[in-house]
């Protein structure tokens, strides 16, 4: 989700622009004056700035100059009725990409901003991919890859740590394929007792074994025309690995107790959170089967390696659980989001989902406040150590920034530890309540 910072002293205009860009899927930050705008850009990742030229007694160009010096590369659009040649020259130097004059046409403005801020914005992904949330380059590339491979029939192997979305991706591939109206059958190879895996997968003929009172279809047959998702593929017993290989090679299956082969038309998607290559090297997984299932490979990287996805995912889960529980929690407070962004999520997206679900259940206000997720994170806060950069002649530091970071970190922790009780937090930090409030405001910590 792209973010836009709107700097304008006119309330009605701010409101119109806010609605306009929220509807276009932007996260919108509003500032009334330059000092507010600075606070925002110092604390949030902003993709584009939309600023009025005249803001009360101030000039929008002063803010744009500040951005240019501190955050080079952030593009801006200037709202102005007229620009003198001097202003025009200077603004171009400062990275102003375009002008729009008042009164402007909403559609034109949106088009302009979108074309600047991200070439990808207009890229419409099919609905089947809407459930895959994230704004990292990784997620974009993943979606492109899913689209590329969905229509074919080649076997797909999805690898990734637990909770990274392997099943979600497998379903998306199925839903985008020509098989979408046929079954998607997930099979957890680790969950079926080894004695019955074969009959579960391949079915059996009446009388094949004690208790086989009638013919029974196996999961492969049930999936006919559709997709079989073999989860935890490394857990498949070695004798069944041979049989699966045959299914993939010949597209035929044989029910237990039968001598007739039948054709099956299935696509196989496998998944594992283990190191499959190692399993092959160490002889636990057949290499011929490995090559068959690994025709197309999708590797899902851990959430901690794509931090940009944390915010959109958190917001998505917030809405989901808030709706589900009939609550009206609209926002995630700053300290909570900061905590989430710095957490290492061993359980990946599933863990994030659990944290938000639990937080929503506990939250009583209309914002997700630190107290509601404190239980989960208290240990984490205690363990968290600041890494201070070493000062060397060839390694200058930004003292102000470092001090600010430390300050923000301690204030956030104090608020977390006291369940957001500001007087107690101030005591804990050894500062006055007034100063604490000032700093909370300054860093927008709540
Ligand atoms: N990018 C994403 N967008 C939205 N939801 C996601 C995303 N990635 C994962 N999830 C959600 O996280 C949870 C875990 O995902 P999933 O079950 O697909 O993971 P997995 O890799 O199969 O995990 P495991 O290895 O533990 O089986 C699911 O509820 C899934 O919907
Ligand atoms: Mg899974």
Whole-number total of structural domains: 3
CATH topology of the largest domain: Rossmann fold
Distance between the termini: 22 Å
Helix content: 40-55%
Which CATH architecture of the largest domain is right? 3-Layer(aba) Sandwich
* CATH C-level name of the largest domain: Alpha Beta
- Biggest sheet record: 5 strands, parallel
Ions, cofactors and other ligands present here are:
adenosine-5'-triphosphate, magnesium ion
Could you give the order of strands across the largest sheet? 2-1-3-6-7
Describe, in plain words, how this protein is organized in 3D.
The structure is a single chain. By secondary structure, the protein is of the alpha/beta class. The protein folds into 3 domains: 3-117, Response regulator (Rossmann fold, 3-Layer(aba) Sandwich), CATH 3.40.50; 127-301, 3-Layer(aba) Sandwich (Rossmann fold), CATH 3.40.50.300; 305-442, Helicase, Ruva Protein, domain 3 (Orthogonal Bundle). Helices cover 47% and strands 15% of the residues. The protein is built from 19 helices and 18 strands. The protein has helices at residues 11-23, 34-43, 60-70, 85-93, 106-117, 137-150, 166-176, 194-202, 219-222, 238-250, 276-281, 287-293, 310-324, 334-342, 348-362, 370-383, 399-417, 422-429, 433-442, and strands spanning 3-7, 27-31, 48-52, 54-55, 58-59, 76-79, 96-100, 156-160, 184-188, 203-204, 216-217, 227-231, 252-254, 261-263, 267-272, 296-300, 331-332, 367-368. The protein has a 5-stranded parallel beta sheet, sandwiched between helices. Strands 9-12-15-8-16 form a 5-stranded parallel beta sheet. It has a two-stranded antiparallel ribbon with strand order 4-5. The longest helix has 19 residues, at 399-417. The protein is elongated and about 90 Å long. The model is unreliable at 379-386 (pLDDT under 50).
